[in-house]
Structures are given as structure tokens and as C-alpha cells.
Amino acid sequence: MSYPTTIQALGSSDPVHWSQAEPIKYEPKPFMDNDVMIKIHACGVCGTDVHTLQCVWGPHRDASVVVGHEIVGEAIRIGSNVTHITVGQIVGLGPVSNSCGECELCLSDREQYCVRAVFTYDDVDFETGSVTKGGFASHVTANQRFVIPIPKHLPEEYAGPLMCAGLTVFSPLYKKLNGKKGQTVGIVGIGGLGHLGLKFAKALGAHVVAISRTLAKKHEALTQLGADDFVATEDDPEWANKYSHKLDMVLYCGASMDNLDLNAYLRAIRPGGQWVTVGVPNGSTMVPLHASGIVSNDVAIKGSKSGSGTEAVKMLKMAADHQIYPIIEKLPMSVKNYTEAMERLGKYDVKYRFVLTGIDQYFQ
């Protein structure tokens, strides 16, 4: 079987006009024995895509950047060491595409934290020296540890966002809630991450409190997303006192930390509980923190990045079995729709994830 020697993609080389897509071509990365090549069918759009295109976290590593790390497609080539993927299988790829495979973290299902972990786009692969390119392309190649089989009864357009947003919220929730029924979890921010956090927390057996700044999403949270209670922090200044020592965990999924009263949340967390941040807001907001809020409540403040391959398999199975689907807007792949998705997401004008579909047809 022949494999592509040229990858087609929509990318960007101009941080000023970051949303304007331009067709580009490049050679695929050198294929390694542990690699899987994927023919891409669909790819979700993540806030990280916008931040990267805008060079929020630094300049691009190559002349053109191809974003997209919520990838679903068909495995068309597997390396000689690949054991769990077969040619023709529908698979997913999230934000990380390689790691050393040998360190303590890689050997303990925490490979996303490996110091040599390679991001799916705009990063340098340590094995080949090539700059990684993402999912708004005809094909992508990744190490087998990060290529995950998609359950047959999970629609592809939903699986894409689950590879990033779904795994990002599932990982800390699963660590905290698995096998521990009856815990109370607060999900802060009802957006691309938070709406899935509500659904997974409920499926994992928690009593779920949706927390937002206003009452705008109360009905949706309580009737469609699985929340048991709803808090609007701007509407009820005493909310933290009412919930004092009632939350076992707070999962922060917000897109902004402006005016965030972290100390109020710490009061609401019961001793031994935890605050976990998974949202990465665009900006440099500093959040005031009183040490007494940590000491007096025995509260842990943590962060969480994506999830492991083992967690991804469990997450996708739970999503398929319980029909935990992201709320998406589907757009057929085109220059126009790529630009629309990026520009609207940059304005937070989406409910709640964009997915560009028909990528394989577009690049025929």
C-alpha cells in the first residue's frame, strides 16, 4: 500500500491575521516503529488553537503552523511495534502525540506529564527533530501511546472534542470520584470544558453543583447537563458561606480568571478536598490567595493537563455507554468555515465546541 508523501493542510503564517487560513503542503514526519498514521476525518476546534495562532504563548516554531488536536480518523499505517491499533480502525488523537516511554511518568499512566512530551502541533518531536503539525490536515502521525481506538457506537463528530475537552475534565474527576459515590463536586464555568465536566461528574456518581457568574445557564445546567444545584456567584454574594465545607472538589473550567475570588471557593471546599484548574485563560491575571484558606481547610490546589491513554480509553467507553456527547456546531471543512470557527471561538461565540467535518473529502 502506498502512503502520502505530501500532507495537505490549512495553516497560518501570520499572527496578525491569525484566523485567515492558507493552504499549505509539507512532508510527513519520518515514520517510526511505534507510529500510527491517521487519515483525518474530523477535528474539533479548541481555545488552545486560537491562543497558539495568536502567539499568546510565544512565537511559532515553524514558518507555518497547523493547529487542531481533537482529531478523529482512520489508521492507514502502523509501525512494526504497534500492538493495539489495526489498519482501518477509527482512532482519536488529542493534545499530546509522543513522549519518551521510559520515565517514571510514562510507566505509570501519566505520560502527558513526561518532560519530553511532544504536543500534537507547533512542537519539536525529539525523535525526528521535525515540527509537529496538527489536525486541520489530510493526515497526521503520532506515537501509538496517544492514538486511541474510538468505540464503534460513538459518532466521530462527538469523539473529536472528547479527545481534548472530554479527557481534560474526565481525568481529574475520575481520579477523585471513581468508586466513591456521594461526593459533591462544583464545576465552575459552563462552556466548552464545563458542560462536559457536568456530564462526566454526574455519570461518575457525584452530586453536581454548576457554578457560573450569572443565572443565564441555570435552566440548561439543571435540565440538560446533569447538575443537581446551581450557583450564580454574582447573584448571591453569600454563596460560599452557604456552601461552607460542602464541596469535595471544585473543577475550574473557566475561560477567564478576572475578578475570581479563589478564597471564597476555598471556604466552600470541605477539609481534605481539592481545587483543580483545567482551564487555561488567555491572559496574565494574578489571583489573590490567602494562605489561611489553605491551612484552615486542608485544601489542595492542583492543576491537571489532558489525561493518559488509559484514562482516554475509559473516558470514551463511558461517553459511548452513557451517550455523554459534547454539544457541538458542525462545519464542513473549508477555508471559509475554518476562518469562521476561529474568529467566533476567539469571541467565545460557540455552543460549545466547533467541529470541522469532511476533512478527508476536502483534501481529496
Write the layout of secondary structure elements.
Layout: E1 7-11, E2 22-26, E3 35-45, H1 47-53, E4 70-78, E5 90-93, E6 96-98, E7 118-119, E8 139-143, E9 147-149, H2 156-177, E10 184-188, H3 194-203, E11 207-212, H4 218-223, E12 229-232, H5 239-242, E13 247-252, H6 262-268, E14 269-277, H7 291-295, E15 300-303, H8 309-322, E16 328-332, H9 335-346, E17 353-357, H10 359-362
Parallel strand pairs: 10-11, 10-13, 11-12, 13-14, 14-15, 16-17
Antiparallel strand pairs: 1-2, 3-4, 3-8, 3-17, 4-5, 5-9, 6-7
Cofactor: Zn(2+)
Organism: Candida tenuis (strain ATCC 10573 / BCRC 21748 / CBS 615 / JCM 9827 / NBRC 10315 / NRRL Y-1498 / VKM Y-70) (Yeast)
Domain Alcohol dehydrogenase-like C-terminal: 192-318
Mind explaining what this structure looks like?
By secondary structure, this protein is of the alpha/beta class. The chain has 2 domains: 7-155 and 325-362, Alpha-Beta Complex (Quinone Oxidoreductase, Chain A, domain 1); 166-303, Rossmann fold (3-Layer(aba) Sandwich), CATH 3.40.50. Strand 14 (269-277), helix 7 and strand 15 (300-303) form a beta-alpha-beta unit. The chain is built from 10 helices and 17 strands. Helix 2 packs across helix 8 (309-322). The model has no long low-confidence stretch (mean pLDDT 95). The longest helix is centred in the middle third of the chain and has 22 residues, at 156-177. The protein has helices at 47-53, 156-177, 194-203, 218-223, 239-242, 262-268, 291-295, 309-322, 335-346, 359-362; strands at 7-11, 22-26, 35-45, 70-78, 90-93, 96-98, 118-119, 139-143, 147-149, 184-188, 207-212, 229-232, 247-252, 269-277, 300-303, 328-332, 353-357. The two termini are 17 Å apart. Its cofactor is Zn(2+). It holds the Pfam family ADH_zinc_N. Keywords: Metal-binding, Oxidoreductase, Zinc. InterPro entries: ADH-like_C (IPR013149), ADH-like_N (IPR013154), ADH_Zn_CS (IPR002328), CAD-like (IPR047109), GroES-like_sf (IPR011032), NAD(P)-bd_dom_sf (IPR036291).
